[in-house]
Amino acid sequence: MAILKRDEYQCRECRRYGKATQADMVHHVYPMETHPKLAFNNDNLISLCNRCHEKMHNRFDRGFTDKGKEWMDRLADKLIPPT
């Protein structure tokens, strides 16, 4: 609920394009399975509508689409320490 409230209950992806769409869920930009330390990091969580959430994942191989990878790249500097 805190993330939805932070994002004013709007889809962050739609908002990038000037659309005001109600968010339906909170999405982990970096998945919990591969980045458990980021699971509850607020910077790793974004509010999305169902349609945009579907665009983040490749349902055939459980990987990320280009759109999902774009969000990962956008937040990498903030979330992933340099090696």
UniProtKB/TrEMBL annotation:
<dbReference type="GO" id="GO:0003676">
    <property type="term" value="F:nucleic acid binding"/>
</dbReference>
<protein>
    <recommendedName>
        <fullName>Putative HNH nuclease YajD</fullName>
    </recommendedName>
</protein>
<dbReference type="InterPro" id="IPR002711">
    <property type="entry name" value="HNH"/>
</dbReference>
<keyword id="KW-0255">Endonuclease</keyword>
<comment type="similarity">
    <text>Belongs to the HNH nuclease family.</text>
</comment>
<dbReference type="GO" id="GO:0004519">
    <property type="term" value="F:endonuclease activity"/>
</dbReference>
<feature type="domain" description="HNH">
    <location>
        <begin position="11"/>
        <end position="59"/>
    </location>
</feature>
<keyword id="KW-0378">Hydrolase</keyword>
<dbReference type="GO" id="GO:0005829">
    <property type="term" value="C:cytosol"/>
</dbReference>
<dbReference type="GO" id="GO:0008270">
    <property type="term" value="F:zinc ion binding"/>
</dbReference>
<dbReference type="GO" id="GO:0016787">
    <property type="term" value="F:hydrolase activity"/>
</dbReference>
<dbReference type="Pfam" id="PF01844">
    <property type="entry name" value="HNH"/>
</dbReference>
<keyword id="KW-0540">Nuclease</keyword>
